[in-house]
Amino acid sequence: MSSHHDTVRDQFSRQAIPFSTAPSMRDDKALQLLIDAAATNAADTVLDVACGPGLVACAFAKVARQVTGIDLTPAMIDRAQALANERQLGNVGFQVGDVLPLPYPDTTFSLVVSRFAFHHFPNPAAVLAEMRRVCRPGGRVAVADLMASPDPKKAAAFHRMEMLRDPSHARALTLEELRTLFARAGLRPPTETFWRMEVDVEGLLERSFPAAGNLEVIRQMYVDSVADDALGLATRRENGRVRITYANVILCA
Length: 253
Ligand SMILES: C[S@@+](CC[C@H](N)C(=O)[O-])C[C@H]1O[C@@H](n2cnc3c(N)ncnc32)[C@H](O)[C@@H]1O
Known about the structure:
Blueprint: H1 3-21, H2 23-26, H3 28-37, E1 45-49, H4 55-61, E2 66-71, H5 74-86, E3 92-96, E4 109-115, H6 124-134, E5 135-146, H7 152-165, H8 175-184, E6 191-200, H9 201-206, H10 214-228, E7 236-238, E8 241-252
Parallel strand pairs: 1-2, 1-4, 2-3, 4-5
Antiparallel strand pairs: 5-8, 6-8, 7-8
The structure holds S-adenosylmethionine.
């Protein structure tokens, strides 16, 4: 197993509970936006790639015929299974596994989705190729993720901070890079749905597990960026709290 996989499992075992309860991750409107952007229907068989605690898979299970979620981190799959049980969903199943390669035959699913995971993949192009492979002809492939700033300086500063905050990050892609991934995977030009996610920095830091000593450095990077938006996150103070905005996109082909 690669050391990146170890880092992912380590980070997301710790993050499993705080991530699954974070308001920004549970937000029903954001989940509905993804369901709509992917034109989800009652006949769909859905794969949720790097499903984490099953929030996406369980939301799709209310609309689609059958949903499968796969994730590398057993603690996340435990949360996902618990959520499905709590909601009494009989049409969703989860498995622990790597997304590269996806352990499913060609053309298994009618809809293959992935949310907030591409920035954790060292080889996102290979994962998208796998998503396409397991999607049946005429199906849809949808990727939702945050976008790195189109300003290379801000994107680089954000990357430096994110690598400290969550070492399981690989790299957030710009919108252009995400579009290029779709083109290179041989997918049609995707529809693009944009949305913003407002996040309280202290809440985010509570569910982050950086190396010892880095927490203060990270907090200071956020605070400093109030003055110059160095991270490209529109950092600001609101009622004494430091807040940021992630610019997100859903690409669906
Ligand atoms: C930020 S979470 C997103 C969870 C979920 N998609 C959501 O939006 O609620 C990223 C997830 O990617 C998973 N992950 C990262 N690399 C993976 C890989 N190579 N194979 C499977 N899962 C992976 C992690 O375990 C983690 O649960």
